[in-house]
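Running this now, will post back.
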Amino acid sequence: MENDLQNVLREDDRSFVVAALQALWRERVAAFMVAEGIAKSRGLCPLDSAEFGIEDTRNMLLRFGAQPPFF
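Update: finished.
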């Protein structure tokens, strides 16, 4: 399933979508890290990153032939 959307859009549109997905990934990772820190400080159970959609965003990036950015 990787790269299956790579040729669906024109290059400039693809670049825009990839940049938007990378920004979304960064925001979701940041939100997860904050929430996880709060949960740990309160002695709560670890959070499930799936609830933040991090993997979903990563999978979409892979489908466009891109990678999540370095945080």
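The helical segments are 11-41, 54-63. More later if anyone needs it.
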